[in-house]
Every structure is written in C-alpha cells, then in structure tokens.
Write a structure and sequence with these properties.
Blueprint: H1 5-13, E1 43-49, H2 54-60, H3 67-71, E2 75-81, H4 89-96, H5 102-105, E3 111-113, E4 123-125, H6 152-159, E5 165-169, H7 172-179, E6 185-190, E7 193-195, H8 204-219, E8 237-239, E9 242-244, H9 257-261, H10 264-281, E10 290-296, H11 298-306, H12 311-333, E11 338-343, H13 352-357, E12 364-365, H14 372-383, E13 394-396, E14 401-405, H15 411-426, E15 431-436, H16 437-441, H17 455-461, E16 471-475, E17 479-480, H18 499-502, E18 503-510, E19 516-517, E20 522-523, H19 527-534
Helix pairs in contact: 4-7, 8-10, 10-12, 11-12, 14-15
Bound molecules: zinc ion.
Length: about 575
C-alpha cells in the first residue's frame, strides 16, 4: 500500500486521483509542483486496425515514423490476444470495448445461422436488426440488437449523460461493436459513400467526406510510393489466374468505388471523417470524457484481396502510420487531452501460394469437400437422409467453423446426421479438431494464459449455445479456408484458432506517460477495464472478462481507482 510521492504523481498524470496523500503517509521531501494537467483524459480514442496481426506489427515496427512511432513510446503489449476461436471482425471488435468474450457478448461470428428462422438463407448477420422486416443478412438494417453487453462508451454515458459516444469505420459491424447500443454518431461506408443508422441524417462532416470521396473517385489519383524498406516484397506471385505482390493502388478516373475501398485511401477518408466529427461535435471539449472509436479497415481489405506479405501491405503499413499521425496531430492541434488505445480485431495470414514459396511448403487451401453443401450432399449419399426439397441439409459460412443441421431434421435422424458429419470431418487430413455443441457447452470457460489454451478452450470462448452450430470444425494450421482464390478480390483470410489470427498488438498512449513494453500475453478483453480505470469509471466486479492492466511504468498503479 505504501507509495512514494513520485509514484503518486505518475498516477495522477495517468488520470487517477491521489487517494493516499490526504492520509499523510508520504514523508518524502516536497517535489516540484506537478504540471497542471487535468486529472483525467477528455477523450478516449479507441483505434482498431482491422487484421493488424502481431506478426505484421513486429515486421514493420522498426520503420514507423508517424502515429505508430508515438504509440511505441507508450505502453506496448505486442502479444494481445483475441483469445477466442472465431477470429473475425465482429467478434474481435466486440471484445475491445465491452471487455466480454464472444461467449458472453453473443457475437460468436460475423454471420451465424438460425435454422428455425423464417428467412430462406437462415443466416444472421452480427450487426443487423432481426426485428426489422426490411433487414436481410445480405443487406442488413444496422443495429446493435444482437450485442448482449454494453460498451465502455455506453457505461460512461450511464455514469455521465454528457459523455458522447462516436464511432466511424468503413465497416458497419466495427461501428456497432465498438460503439454499442447508444451511439451519438456512427458512420460506415456502404457502396460509394459513408452512411449512418436508419432514420438518422448525415452530419455535415459526413456529407463533406462523401463529397470528397466522390471527387476523388471522379478525378482518380496516382500510384502510391513504396518505401525503400518494402524491398524484396515487391515481387509477383501467381495466385489462381492472376498475380499479386506488385500493385500500387493507382486510382483511374471514374474508378469503381471498390478500388478506393480496397486501398490505403479508405483509411484516409475514415480519418478525415473522424477529424470532421471532432470539430463538429467538439469532442474532448465537453464537461465529460468522450469516446471516439475509429476502426480502420483497409489493412483487412488489402490482406484479403492481395495477401499480407507483398508490396501492397508494405505500402499500407506506411500509409496507415501516416494516417494515424495525422489523426493524432489533429487532436494535438485542438489541445485535446486524449488517451489512445490501438489494437486489432484479429490477425491474419498470407496466401498459401506465397507461403509455399517462402519456406512453408505445407501451406494449402481448404478442400472443397469441407464446404457445408458438399458435406451435406455426402451425408445424404451415405444415409439417404435429405432436407426438404430445395433446402440444404447443412448450413455454414465456409469450410470450417459452425455447422448447423436443417431444422426439419430432428431426433435420432439429426443424431445420425451429426455422427456422419463428425466421421467425415474428423477423418479429413486438413482438420485439426471437431467438437459438438454439447461437448463445448460442457467445457468450462477458459482462464489463464491464452497462448496455452487448447483448441477446445479457444472454441469455448466464442461458443454460445443459442447461437453456435451443432458441430464446430477447426482446420489445421496454414490451411486457408478459401478453396478457390480470386487475385485482387479474395485470396487470404483469418478466422482460425491459430495464433497468427489471435495475436494482435495492444498499444496505450497518453501525453507525458512513461512508456514500457510488456511481452507477456494479455487479452483484448483487458482493454475495457484498463480504460475504465484510467478515466475513473467505477464498475461492479464481474463487469468484464478481462483484467485491468497497470499503465503506470513505475511503482504506482493506474488500476487503483479513485475511492
Ligand atoms: Zn477480414
């Protein structure tokens, strides 16, 4: 309990009050007066870089000179874990500001299935409003209805209604999962423009962002420069019928909007909109701390379309670093005292074609026989059990993850289908593990070092009985679940139980803080309790699945909240 005056001052600089001072315990000589810094940050800036694996961060951190360079002077956790198995955008974004794993937040995947649902595809999109008849899984009415826990911004608003909770991204699910149910402003990209929630008008800042995007698309833009350090990554690799590895994002006149979306310029547009909202809403200037969530999606779009180890991702890392620098500089210029958290929703992995050339000869693409339609057809061939005319026997989003049996198949017939499904998948050479819903439901929620969890425990952390599949399949390491790649569109992905998809950086920074690096594993569910402590938000024990991380590099502890 005994703490020095210096450590108390460090604690105060991080935003906590100094509870022990009044009790007169500190007997050290009086130090120089503390700088007149406000006790708590006025703005929490939560940044998510979609698909920024710890591997990419490690590969590029020595080259950063912009926003990342600043964050590297703060608290650096290079081994943050999205500890669950469903390493996708929606679950990943849902852990960051709720402190809840998908098993509790209910966000078990980007898409899951409810075979009893009236709609034909039985598919549920994670951030849609199922109660709105206009919503479909492919064209959702965007909402946080399916998120079962509150976000940090919502908890702060509950504590002080003056807090504003704002989120921007290229992806609606990132906005919804970081912002939550009560968002003061939320914008995402749809088609060729930023849009917002049904029934809301675009703010002037969003209108300006859309005007700028239209102008850019009409006018075009030159290729982006590859920094010298991209070096040998600038090399063509054949994937399917095309090549990747040398693209430079030149934007022709009147380009298709997707050429803007799948480029570093998408992050630039998102950052511009965020800065516009800071001005328009005077974020960080009200009486209560505000939350601004900025999820930058370009790294993910580029990773999927072009892979992670070519010149394209190298250019993106340089542009991202610059875009982050621009965002931080804009907040500095407005004299806002802000606390930054940067992390990622999941990691990623390169295309197997390049992995094979670069010392991973075993990398492969998933066998089409593992697709739910193919598995269902094979089960029907073996058992003569079929779904009603025109319906699939099995529902699922790809050659792994959750698989659901058609709702018309019940009782012992369903058991037979599941047993046949277990036989087919467990005996497949690309499959690492297969579990039934009953097996996962009977597994305790994991704890301890996420690096050491079993595959079953990883699956358990994103399992929820009412939403998860009847059977869950995990593929072997370095099996890419895209059987047929399309270069420039979809060649590489994430979503696996392996650490290249689970491990992400977690970086915290505030002006004046003393930095440190902690290489031991932490979790993205630790972020919300950590931020809550720094801003002095008091919550009941058990509000979070994670733990508060002490951001004080010295003997003080930023997790000791004001009493
Ligand atoms: Zn993705």
């Amino acid at each position: 309990m005994r703490r020095t005056v210096l450590s108390l001052l460090a604690t105060a600089a991080l935003g906590l009050s100094a509870p022990a001072l009044a009790q007169g315990q500190a007997a050290a000589p009086a130090p120089a007066p503390a700088p007149a810094e406000p006790a708590r940050p006025q703005l929490v800036l939560a940044v998510s870089i979609d698909q920024l694996s710890s591997d990419l961060f490690a590969q590029y951190r020595e080259h950063f000179t912009g926003g990342f360079a600043r964050l590297l002077t703060g608290a650096v956790f290079p081994s943050g874990f999205q500890s669950h198995a469903a390493t996708e955008t929606c679950p990943g974004h849902s852990t960051m500001l709720t402190g809840a794993r998908p098993a509790r937040s209910g966000i078990i995947a980007n898409n899951w299935f409810n075979p009893s649902l009236a709609r034909a595809d039985k598919r549920v999109y994670c951030s849609e409003d199922l109660s709105d008849p206009a919503s479909t899984s492919g064209n959702p009415v965007v909402s946080a209805n399916l998120l079962k826990v509150p976000t940090l911004g919502e908890l702060m608003k509950a504590a002080n209604p003056a807090t504003r909770n704002v989120a921007v991204s290229a992806k609606d699910r990132a906005v919804v999962m970081m912002g939550g149910h009560k968002i003061d402003a939320g914008y995402w990209w749809k088609g060729s423009a930023f849009t917002t929630f049904k029934g809301r008008e675009l703010a002037p800042a969003a209108v300006r962002a859309n005007t700028a995007a239209s102008a850019l698309l009409a006018k075009g833009a030159p290729a982006l420069k590859a920094p010298a350090w991209c070096g040998s990554r600038d090399r063509a690799v054949t994937v399917g019928t095309g090549t990747v590895g040398t693209y430079r994002f030149a934007l022709p006149k009147n380009a298709k909007p997707d050429m803007l979306r799948i480029s570093p310029r998408m992050d630039g547009a998102t950052v511009d909109l965020a800065i516009g909202l800071v001005d328009e809403m005077k974020l960080g200037k009200g009486g209560a701390p505000d939350v601004l969530s900025v999820s930058l999606s370009a790294s993910d779009y580029i990773g999927h379309a072009l892979g992670t180890e070519g010149v394209e991702m190298c250019i993106q890392m340089a542009e991202l670093d610059a875009n982050l620098g621009r965002l931080f500089a804009a907040l500095d210029k407005r004299k806002i005292d802000y606390l930054v958290l940067l992390t990622a929703d999941h990691g990623g992995h390169d295309a197997p074609e390049r992995l094979r050339e670069q010392a991973m000869p075993g990398a492969s693409r998933a066998d089409k026989a593992l697709m739910p339609a193919a598995l269902g057809a094979e089960i029907t061939r073996r058992t003569l059990i079929a779904a009603p005319q025109g319906q699939p026997l099995l529902y699922g989003d790809g050659p792994f993850g959750d698989i659901y049996v058609n709702a018309a198949i019940t009782g012992p017939t369903k058991t037979r289908v599941i047993n046949e499904l277990l036989n087919l998948t467990r005996n497949h050479p690309q499959v690492a593990a297969v579990f039934t819903a009953a097996e996962l439901a009977a597994t305790p929620l994991p704890s301890g070092n996420p690096q050491d969890w079993t595959i079953k425990e990883r699956l358990r952390a994103s399992f929820m009985a009412e939403r998860s599949g009847d059977v869950l399949v995990a593929l072997n390491r370095a099996v890419t679940p895209i059987p047929e790649p399309v270069a420039g569109a979809f060649i590489a992905t994430h979503g696996s139980v392996w650490d290249y998809d689970r491990r992400v950086p977690m970086l915290f920074w505030r002006k004046g803080m003393t930095g440190f690096e902690q290489p031991n594993p932490v979790e993205t569910v630790d972020i919300a309790p950590t931020l809550a402590s720094v801003i002095g938000l008091r919550l009941d024990d058990g509000a979070f699945d994670g733990r508060c991380l002490d951001l004080d590099a010295g003997a003080g502890n930023s997790c000791e909240r004001a009493k």
